[in-house]
Design goal:
The protein is of the alpha/beta class. The protein has helices at residues 43-52, 100-113, 154-161, and strands spanning 36-40, 57-62, 66-70, 76-81, 94-98, 118-123, 128-134, 140-146. The strands form 2 sheets. Strands 1-4-3-2 form a 4-stranded mixed β-sheet, with helices on one face. Strands 5-8-7-6 form a 4-stranded mixed β-sheet, covered by helices on one side. It starts with 35 loop residues before the first strand and ends in a 17-residue tail after the last helix.
């Protein structure tokens, strides 16, 4: 019996590539394995930004108190009415997967709603394209899209240097990371 589970089987994140298609919005109810609760002083403005800018949808709400938002399965956010929020975004961020084909439109949508809310996109040493967005409630959100894996790239060398190799290469398909 194996001591690990291939979690790619349950992940909504598609295989990286220029033609990757995001999954359909998941409107079902499940026990959330993780979620963020974000306080806001203006629930309506926050909901509008998260929906029109970040591509979330409203799963349900408790009027005037809480709105449960979701993008893909397991990408859940609870916006909670609060008396105050921090005046600046914290150093900590919360990341949500997207696909490469969504990056530009998400940047445009966020900038149209809040011109100074977006930093990026930028490519990372770990083979993603990331966009950082500061929301109306000063949450620091990173939209991250995996890029196609190029075994000859610097990103591949970066990953190999820490022991992560593509399947079938190196030392046993990353068993120590499974």
């Amino acid at each position: 019996m194996s001591d690990h589970y291939n979690a790619f089987e349950i992940s909504p994140v598609p295989t990286p590539g220029p033609d990757a298609v995001p999954p359909e919005p998941f409107r079902g109810i499940y026990g959330m394995p993780a979620f963020a609760t974000i306080p806001t002083t203006d629930l309506a403005a926050s909901v509008d930004f998260w929906i029109r800018g970040l591509g979330f949808f409203e799963l349900f709400s408790i009027p005037g108190t809480l709105v449960h938002l979701r993008r893909w399965a397991f990408q859940d956010v609870l916006l909670l009415r609060a008396e105050s929020v921090p005046e600046q975004a914290p150093a900590m961020s919360l990341s949500f997967s997207c696909v490469l084909g969504q990056v530009d439109s998400l940047v445009e949508a966020c900038r149209a709603l809040r011109p100074d809310s977006v930093d990026g996109p930028r490519d990372t040493p770990w083979n993603t394209r990331d966009v950082e967005v500061v929301t109306p409630e000063n949450a620091r959100i990173v939209l991250t899209a995996a890029k196609p894996f190029d075994p000859a790239s610097q990103e591949a060398r970066n990953l190999e240097a820490i022991g992560i190799t593509p399947p079938g290469v190196g030392r046993g398909d990353n068993q120590e990371h499974a």
